[in-house]
Design brief:
The chain has 956 residues and is α/β, with parallel strands linked by helices. 45% of the residues lie in helices and 18% in strands. The longest helix has 35 residues, at 921-955.
């Protein structure tokens, strides 16, 4: 075995070995329980980030753990086509390389360009997954636009449409004018920005002499939308204005006569109490418009400009001619901000602008393109969710799907109880094109293809059919992921075996985007043999969000992103700076990012290997929502892997000629060997319990503590003494236990740190005569409830305490670590006396003892001894011959002087009335406790000084 642990030398070759031998595949043993995890498909648009690496590590731990329990295990892998993100990326690319836009291509040519790019990108993502050690079944890898997945998406759409769950309607949506598509309300980011509020007069149409008011004053932050106003609203309880309900005002500039309506949406205490209603460009106004059956006027083009003519609809979205559709020519084709300036200019010129106020406004931005979102009236496809959501709510309430941690259940239920119909169409070219065709009369035909539609509806070849240009929301195909990847709509063997899946590992940020929708659609489409809905997964494990060391979200613009592969393989400072500052949306931030990177990583990032990274992820996987990344912990766990490597190397060197034999825990063996068997058994119980309850942090800490503190720091120290001084039979048995424990320990650790454990196991299996090819298919250690003996644990614990006491005494008294000390024990019972006699040679060797003597009650204690009572036994170490008396007197006098000074300061503080009157109670308590402790130390040191002075006087 190589002297130094170098993960780069072992990791990639081991992964190739696993993959080529098909170890990641299901074992297809139908007599064993099935275990399945669906990997949330990462987007093909970029590299895996820390969140991906974190979640995929958690999934791989679960997969390896269950595979080693003999289960028929499938980890389904795949990637997502990421409609909007991919289209943005390719549009940027063609503009950068060719100075062209999407509109310079036909739809087919543009899509072909994306497919060509996808082949390269997909290799990058899957290569990173391999570097992380993901034990996925690569032969079953899926892509959300694969033909079989596309077929499943069409089938789902057609079934939902035919069962009246899908409908088309003109409704208000969040519109991204840069991408020219609708986006989900979950993809809208609201930012507080400085803006203005304009107070505009709307002249009242006087059709009666009883009206004394000339105009109503309205405050707006979007004056350009007045072009689409179809009412003014006042609160019915507003005595100032409610008598005007039913009357009309003139909308400035367009001179449109619009009604004054009464609606509680108008807030008596906000601004003027009057609100302009623009149903086609504001979500609240849209609801008011629906209540009052107001016309809706669309004033914006799809690219965010003022139209040449208004598009006017009734409240049901049907075209209407209730108003003049002409737009004044000076506003036509202006972008929104230019139109705003022009409107205000004209309003002021007409004398209708009363006031302008500075204010802060919550503005919706697209998190995709970073442009301001405009609510626009468009024709979209929707999925009805009310009926689907009821079942999805009940199944979670009944705990048939459990959220871990459970606080996320309330988040899920809160959203589901207020769910609205899902807008499933997007105005993109890349994605699943909606399987709908229209004839010239706008009749709708839904089917798998134009050919099948013509056959089904007997449509002649000379009748032109055009397919809907829109694609489905990316999340629609993702919502089918748990069953479409297993072969649905066909009734495949894999669908029968592996559905429902066992656990979904995901982030809280996509509970609504993905998890809720998967639950709804899976339960609708997939039924068990009794016709009951199947859940997509039984558990939902929600991870926290990995943040930087200061707790900030990792982002390109902050310059705090860390590529997980850079921690595995290492990266130089120059390359790291180059990576962090390239392709910035705001190039002016590059110098700031460069400075931050130099400060954080002056020497770049050191390679730690995959196992150290995986162990860090596991150790940080607590139940908190936010997780601070810690590079020091990563380095610490790299040292931990090194410790395991060196310990294993020691075992292999010392057992290379050993003939391994089977044994029983009841065989005659040294106490320390029985102790390590019991300790390991207890660790198995706690470790398995931690993994079974998704407490990966506890599992990692249990493993760390056993390997570092129990196995390496204690057991191996005892083993060294046994090999050096033990009898041939003790040595033979100890070597056997050593191999046995290490081999089991490697199996136990394998799910978290697979590479190092496989590498070491390949060597130790030869000594243990194991013929199998890999550790990953070995049985996982099981807890033995018969292997219990509290006496053995307490007796070894007692021995350890004695050794620690002796080591601390050496440090305290400045005695060399190798100088032989005498040890005396008093008030010892027969059991502990037996323990000492049986393990005398171990204690003497490990603690560097000259002799061990048991004193009777009659025996005098050695003069000037350091004494400690450990588990009822007096432990004494004579130090008279071990120290220089004059030096020790000086040390004690110095210590006493220092303590006296501290006592005086503390006494002064605790007798100060101001301190006692004004200091917080906990501070006063702390100071009193501190004074008490100082006095105890002073007394102890004084006694030591007195004893030493007496001794010096006697000698003189």
């Amino acid at each position: 075995m190589e002297k130094n642990y170098n993960p780069k030398d072992i990791e990639e070759s081991l992964y190739d070995f696993w993959e080529k031998n098909g170890f990641f595949k299901p074992n297809n043993d139908l007599n064993k329980p099935a275990f399945c995890i669906m990997m949330p498909p990462p987007n093909i648009t970029g590299n895996l980030h820390m969140g991906h690496a974190f979640q995929q590590t958690i999934m791989d731990i679960l997969i390896r753990y269950n595979r080693m329990q003999g289960k028929n295990t499938l980890w389904q892998v795949g990637t997502d086509h990421a409609g909007i993100a991919t289209q943005i990326l390719i549009e940027r690319q063609i503009y950068s390389e060719e100075k062209k836009t999407k509109k310079d291509y036909s739809r087919n040519d543009f899509v072909k360009k994306i497919w060509k790019w996808k082949k390269k990108s997909n290799v990058s993502v899957t290569k990173q997954m391999r570097r992380l050690g993901n034990s996925v079944d690569w032969d079953r890898e899926k892509f959300t636009l694969d033909p079989d997945i596309s077929n499943a998406v069409k089938e789902a759409f057609i079934i939902l449409y035919k069962n009246n769950f899908i409908y088309q309607k003109k409704r208000l949506v969040h519109w991204d004018s840069k991408l020219e598509t609708v986006i989900s309300d979950l993809e809208v980011e609201h930012r507080l920005v400085k803006g203005k509020k304009w107070f505009i007069r709307y002249p009242i149409v006087k059709n009666t002499k009883n009206i004394n008011i000339k105009y109503l004053l309205v405050a707006t932050t979007r004056p350009e939308t007045l072009l689409g106003d179809t009412a003014l609203a006042v609160n019915p309880k507003d005595h100032k204005y409610n008598h005007l309900i039913g009357h009309s005002v003139i909308c400035p500039i367009v001179n449109r006569i619009i009604p004054i309506i009464g609606d509680n949406y108008a807030d008596l205490n906000k601004d003027t109490g009057c609100v302009k209603i623009t149903p086609a460009h504001d979500f609240n106004d849209y609801k008011v418009g629906q209540r009052h059956k107001l016309p809706m006027i669309n004033i914006f083009t799809r690219n965010g400009k003022i139209k040449s003519n208004f598009s006017i609809y009734n409240y049901q979205g049907i075209k209407s001619n209730v108003y003049n559709s002409s737009i004044p020519i000076e506003f036509q084709n202006l972008d929104i901000l230019s139109a705003r300036k022009k409107i205000i200019y004209e309003i002021e010129k007409l004398g209708f602008l009363e006031n302008i106020e500075e204010c802060e406004i919550l503005v919706p931005y697209s998190d995709r393109s970073n442009v301001v979102i405009q609510p626009i009236l468009t024709n979209q496809w929707y999925l009805k969710t009310l009926q689907l959501s009821k079942l999805a709510i009940n199944i979670v309430k009944e705990k048939k799907i459990k959220f871990i941690p459970d606080q996320y259940e309330s988040m899920y239920l809160s959203w589901m109880n207020n769910i609205e119909d899902w807008c499933i169409s997007r105005q993109l070219w890349w994605g699943h094109r909606i399987p709908v065709w229209y004839d010239d009369n706008k009749n709708i035909y839904v089917g798998y293809s134009e050919k099948k539609i013509r056959e089904e509806y007997d449509i002649a070849d000379n009748t032109i059919l055009n397919q809907d240009n829109d694609v489905l929301d990316t999340w629609f195909s993702s919502a089918l992921w748990t069953f479409s990847t297993l072969g649905w709509p066909e009734k495949t063997k894999f669908l029968k075996i592996f559905h429902s899946t066992n656990v979904l590992v995901s982030g809280f940020d996509i509970i609504f985007f993905w998890i809720a929708r998967m639950i709804m659609l899976t339960m609708y489409f997939i039924k068990d043999c009794h016709g009951n809905p199947q859940v997509p997964f039984k558990d939902v494990y929600i991870t926290g969000l990995i943040r930087d060391e200061e707790g900030k979200k990792m982002s390109k613009s902050k310059g705090n992103v860390i590529d997980p592969i850079d921690m595995i393989d290492g990266i130089s400072l120059n390359k790291l700076i180059e990576k962090r500052t390239s392709n910035l949306l705001q190039p002016n931030l590059s110098e700031k990012i460069r400075y931050r990177t130099i400060k954080q990583f002056p020497n770049g990032i050191e390679a730690t290997g995959t196992d150290a990274l995986r162990f860090t992820f596991s150790a940080l996987a607590s139940n908190t929502r936010d997780i601070k990344w810690d590079m020091n912990r990563l380095k610490g766990y790299r040292n931990f892997c090194n410790k395991l490597w060196n310990a294993s190397r020691f075992v292999l060197i010392n057992t290379k000629d050993h003939n391994y034999f089977n044994f029983s825990v009841h065989d005659n063996m040294l106490l320390i060997n029985k102790w390590i068997l019991i300790k390991f058994n207890n660790v198995v119980k706690l470790y398995r319990s931690s993994l079974d309850t998704y407490r990966f942090d506890i599992a990692a800490n249990v493993l760390y503590d056993f390997i570092w503190n129990v196995f390496c720091d204690w057991y191996l120290e005892f083993v060294k003494s046994i090999i050096k001084l033990g009898s041939p039979e003790d040595i033979r048995f100890t070597k056997n236990i050593l191999i046995h424990i290490l081999e089991l320990l490697l199996r136990l650790s394998h799910p978290i740190i697979p590479f190092i454990t496989e590498s070491i196991w390949q060597r130790i299996k030869k000594i243990k005569y194991i013929k199998d090819k890999t550790i990953m298919l070995q049985s996982f250690p099981e807890y033995n409830n018969q292997l219990l003996d509290k006496n053995i644990l307490s007796n070894i614990s007692w021995m350890k305490k004695i050794i620690i006491f002796l080591r601390n005494t050496r440090v305290k008294m400045n005695i060399s670590s190798t100088k032989l000390l005498p040890l005396f024990l008093k008030n010892i019972n027969s059991e502990k006396e037996k323990i000492i006699k049986e393990n005398k040679f171990l204690l003497k060797n490990i603690a560097f003892l000259e002799k061990i003597k048991i004193l009777s009650k009659k025996d005098n204690e050695p003069f000037l001894s350091i004494k400690k009572i450990i588990d009822g036994v007096e432990i004494l170490v004579p130090i008279l011959k071990m120290i220089d008396k004059e030096t020790e007197l000086k040390r004690l006098n110095k210590e006493i002087k220092k303590i006296k000074s501290q006592i005086l300061i503390s006494e002064e503080k605790t007798s100060n009335q101001n301190f006692l009157s004004y200091a917080p109670k906990n501070i006063i308590k702390q100071e009193i406790k501190k004074l008490r402790n100082l006095n105890e130390i002073y007394l102890k040191l004084s006694k030591q000084l007195e004893s030493l002075n007496n001794l010096c006087c006697e000698k003189k």
